[in-house]
Amino acid sequence: MGAPEKEPVGPGVPRREDFLFESDFPETARNLARLLGWDGALSLIRELGGIPFPVPKGPNNNARGAARYERLVELVGEEGAKRLVYEYGDDMLNIPNCSQAFSKGTKRAMAAYYDRGASLEETAAAFGVTTRWVSMALKAVPPMSGERIRFPT
Questions:
Q1: For residues 142 and 108, is the Cβ–Cβ distance under 8 A?
Q2: 138: closest CA among 122, 114, 119, 121?
Q3: Contact 128, 8 (CB under 8 A)
Q4: Rounded to an integer, what distance in angstroms lies between the CA atom of residue 98 and that of residue 91?
Q5: Which residues of the chain are under the pLDDT cut of 50?
Q6: Could you tell me the sign of the dihedral formed by the alpha carbons of 130, 105, 111, 137, in that order?
Q7: Distance between CA atoms of 50 and 53, rounded to whole angstroms?
Q8: CA angle 17, 23, 25 (to 5 degrees)
Q9: What pTM does this model have?
Q10: What is the C-alpha separation between 75 and 140, in angstroms, rounded?
Q11: β-sheet bridge partners, residue 50
């Protein structure tokens, strides 16, 4: 049961990002967060997750490498791109898609919304899923343990 792609909408609807914990993520994602911070790591994961990415040797190594470097700069900024090149330059970086971690965050957010008094129908509409999916998700809410990831609001 995967997480919906649609972000929850509406006043008072919790964001899944508020229910993500470092322990939910694979080691590769935690390493990216160590280099880039969680904002940078999640930007990379959202855009390139599940795709093996050949990290260039530097910004001007060759035309293809320069294009890849520019893509990294777009996603994580100049400093983040430099850190990735230093750590993974000339290697294939397997960027995780973190679907399980995002699914856990979504289930926790749904449970929080439902626990605040929202009906199954309201919860389903807010998260863009069916009431059956909400019912199943509420039966399998992962525990909240470990260090919570903090994002600027």
A1: yes
A2: 114
A3: yes
A4: 21
A5: 1-5
A6: positive
A7: 9
A8: 65
A9: 0.81
A10: 33
A11: none
